């Protein structure tokens, strides 16, 4: 069994979604709400709950670190 290392920021933000869950919730990242230099924000609806969410997707070219991403 492999144990996963937990990063410090994960303690404050324990719930994580898989890429597949976010892809489905945003219908393939279709409805863009806004765009920054390193990322885009998409509207989504979580399956099962119907809860509307905003999902930030970092650009593959981004040099932004995980701490900066979580801080936003």
From TrEMBL:
InterPro entries: Kinase-like_dom_sf, L-type_Lectin-RKs. Keywords: ATP-binding, Nucleotide-binding. It comes from the Eukaryota. One of its GO terms (molecular function) is ATP binding. This is Protein kinase domain-containing protein. It comes from Nymphaea colorata.
């Amino acid at each position: 069994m492999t144990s996963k290392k937990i990063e410090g920021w994960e303690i404050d933000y324990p719930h994580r979604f898989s890429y597949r869950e976010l892809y489905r919730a945003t219908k393939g990242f279709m409805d863009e709400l806004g765009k920054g230099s390193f990322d885009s924000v998409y509207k989504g609806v979580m399956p099962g709950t119907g809860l509307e969410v905003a999902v930030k997707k970092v650009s593959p070219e981004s040099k932004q670190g995980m701490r900066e991403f979580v801080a936003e």
